[in-house]
Each structure stands twice: as C-alpha cells, then as structure tokens.
Design a protein that fits this description.
Layout: H1 4-14, H2 27-37, E1 39-47, E2 53-64, E3 70-78, H3 80-101, E4 108-110, E5 116-119, H4 121-125, H5 131-134, H6 148-157, E6 163-170, E7 176-183
Antiparallel strand pairs: 1-2, 2-3, 4-5, 6-7
Length: 189
C-alpha cells in the first residue's frame, strides 16, 4: 500500500497540470476567477493516474507562504458518484412526471395541511380549475361533503395502505360530481 507521502511525491513530481483535465471548458474560467479573486470553488474534470477522468469538487486559493512566495492550495473531492446519483434522481423524477401527467386518472398530491402540492391536468379538469389555480387550493375547496377537521385528520392519519371511498366534489362553477377516491401516504421532507 502506498503511503500518503509517496502519493504526494507523485503529484509534486508530475505537476498539478497533469491532474487537471485541460480539455475541460470550465478550466479557463476557474483559473481567471482564482487569479481575479484569489480563490475558486466549483467543479472541474480531473485525470487519475490510470488515465480515467472524474468530476471533482474544487476549493482552491492563492496564499503567500512564510518566504513571501505565492502558493496555491487545492482541495479536490471526487463527486462522480454524487453526480451519478443526482442524474438518476432527475431521470426518476422525469419518469414520474410523465406517468402522472399521462395518467387517465386525476392525481393530486396534498401536503399535511390539505394544500395542493401538485395535481395533474386530468385532476384539475375535473373541478374545472387551471393547474396554477389548483396549486392555490386546499382539499376542502372542492370537497365539501367531509368537514375540514375530518379531512385534515384523514390526511394526517393515512398510511401506505391508503384508503378507498366515494365522496362528492364541487366544480369551480358550483356543480357537483361524484368521485371515487383512492389514497395513500408518502412522506416528503
């Protein structure tokens, strides 16, 4: 196993420039910012000893040592896995949005206070609101069959198993529609 000193010696011998991927289009802007402000924080591409590239989160600053020499410090954290997880999450969110928006059923997500967090267009069409209007509403704005206190209690006590019931919703124009509701809970932070 190589010691820290051996790894550090390799870096010094090869020079910093061999660590940074000089083809990264963000590199010039990073160097300019560090020259102008004395520091840079952001992401750049780096090259490992074996030639593979990785995304690195960088904190770099210019300082003056005891001898009056200008020096550069650089802390690099490999964020490849974090970036991969972030992309996977974004892909899953995209899939989820597509599934919800293309559903034949009306889907609405409420927060713990009964306020609409999101609603697909199919749901917004049922009570006759626009998507923007829906985000300003609470469940009791369209469901007057069940008292507000009961609705809040239902929301707060619902679990992953959910519930299934029928009720009556009222459209924006005041007309009533009978609906079948299936609920389940998901906790968001």
């Amino acid at each position: 196993m190589r010691s820290y000193e051996q790894a550090e010696e390799d870096i010094i011998r090869k020079g910093r420039a061999l660590l940074v991927d000089t083809t990264d289009p963000r590199l010039n802007a990073a160097l300019e910012e560090r020259a102008r402000t004395g520091r840079f924080e952001g992401e750049l591409m780096f090259i490992r000893k074996d030639g593979t590239r990785f995304h690195g989160e960088v904190s770099s600053s210019i300082f003056t040592d005891r001898n009056g020499q200008k020096r550069t410090s650089m802390i690099i954290r490999d964020v490849t896995e974090r970036r991969k997880a972030k992309q996977e999450l974004a892909d899953e969110m995209t899939k989820r949005k597509i599934l919800i928006s293309q559903s034949r059923d009306g889907i609405v997500t409420l927060d713990r206070n009964g306020k609409v967090y999101e609603a697909n267009q199919r749901f917004a069409d049922m009570p006759g609101y626009t998507s923007d209007e829906m985000r300003e509403l609470h469940v009791w704005d369209w469901d007057t069959q069940i008292e507000r206190v009961q609705l809040l209690e239902m929301i707060r006590t619902i679990d992953e198993a959910g519930d299934h019931f029928e009720t009556r919703h009222y459209r924006k124009d005041g007309t009533g529609i009978d609906v079948e509701i299936s609920t389940n809970a998901a906790v968001f932070s």
